[in-house]
Amino acid sequence: MSLSNRYDFVLLFDVKDGNPNGDPDAGNLPRLDAETGHGLVTDVSLKRKIRNFVTMTRDQEARDPQPGEKRFEIYVREKAILNQQNQRAYSALKMDEEPAESATDEVSEKKATKDKKRKGAGEDVNKARDWMCLNFFDVRAFGAVMSTGVNCGQVRGPVQMTFARSVDPIISQEHSITRMAVATEAEAEKQSGDNRTMGRKFTVPYGLYVAHGFVSSFLAGQTGFDEDDLELLWQALAQMFEHDRSAARGEMSTRGLYVFRHDSQLGNAPAHTLFERIHVTRTADVPRSFAGYEVFVNDTEMPSGVTLLRKI
Q1: What is the average pLDDT across 98-109?
Q2: Are 282 and 244 in contact (CB under 8 A)?
Q3: Is the pLDDT at 102 greater than 50, yes or no?
Q4: Spatial separation of the C-alpha atoms in residues 185 and 105, rounded to whole Å
Q5: Residue by residue, what is the 3-state secondary structure of the chain?
Q6: CB atoms < 10 A from the CB of 201, how many?
Q7: Do 62 and 71 contact (CB within 8 A), yes or no?
Q8: How many CA atoms lie within 13 A of 104 on its CB side?
Q9: Average of per-residue pLDDT across 289-300
Q10: Helices 227-239 + 43-63 axis angle, to 10
């Protein structure tokens, strides 16, 4: 069943003694706003966790779908080759392109075939795009650029998220760590058998982060994102950190998921006025747990046509 409502949501999550989102251009330090010192977690990082949750919970359905049911495969996954993913649509719909007969050598043949598939017939591209939306949850939800080779068009996803930003400035602590082993015999000889490897890790002692999200019913109608997909999204946002544990990330937890449902597709209030109803204030001088904050939700006199749904 397609969506008939617009949704805006606020996600609260925290980290304790962990690195929520390292910056590879800064030695994997926790991301932060250089001007204010507030911590940042990218939308890409959050979407990765949603994708992982869907893979974990719907893997069997993706591999062995029932007749007439949508599949829950993930398009952007680890070690995926996206053009091979795109080719699956053409193969499934029996629209495979043949190499150009006019090619006179291997190089020109590959180029001609590539150009032919990149351009494609408009009808074929539309069919391939619809197939990708039907089979891949993240294409239906977040959209994708699928015209990089085998042309499956472009999809603008109905679910969009902002960077998460910490409520207060964060500090990054650096820790020296020791591994009681080395990788090669040469390293062992240099250390006379001591066999130690030194390293570093960075953690945020504590940070509470806020992210905003949006769900467009108009775009959902174009991709086939339906009520079942929406419920899976809420479930993923609520539980994704519970199944993404690692030593680097410390303790991460979803602390609040506030969903504003509009009675109409167009919406009944601006998103920013709804987000401003969620107030997070510090109650401790130096918070080191969620107890150091207080969350106040102004749910009185909601705008006409807007309902607040507290998922957590």
Answers
A1: 53
A2: no
A3: no
A4: 49
A5: CECCCCEEEEEEEEEEEECCCEEHHHCCEECECCCCCEEEECHHHHHHHHHHHHHHHHHHHHHCCCCCCCCCECCCCCCCCHHHHHHHHHHHCCCCCCCCCCCCCHHHHHHHHHHHHHHCCHHHHHHHHHHHHHHEHHHHHHEEECCCCCCCCEEECCEEECCEEEEEECCCEEEEEEECCCCCHHHHHHCCCCCCEEEEEEEEEEEEEEEEEEECHHHHHHHCCEHHHHHHHHHHHHHHHHHCCCCCCCEEEEEEEEEEEECCCCCCCCHHHHHCCEEEEECCCCCCCHHHEEEEECCCCCCCCEEEEECC
A6: 15
A7: yes
A8: 0
A9: 96
A10: 120
Residue spans per domain, the chain: 7-310
**pLDDT tens digit sequence for 115-144:** 555 545 688 999 999 999 999 999 999 999
Please name the amino acid found at residue 8: D
Distance CA 17, CA 201 (A): 11
CA Rg value for the chain: 24
Query: Residue 263 CA to chain centroid, in angstroms?
Result: 27
Half-sphere exposure of 41 (CA within 13 A, CB side): 29
Angle, alpha carbons 292-286-211 (nearest 5°): 60
Q: What is the widest separation between alpha-carbon atoms in the chain?
A: 75
- The pTM for the full model equals 0.88
> Which single residue is written with the structure tokens 């209030």?
269
Q: At what angle do helices 122-135 and 82-92 cross, to 10 degrees?
A: 110
Q: For CA atoms 53, 162, 299, 14, give the dihedral sign.
A: positive
Interatomic CA distance for residues 72 and 68, integer angstroms: 13
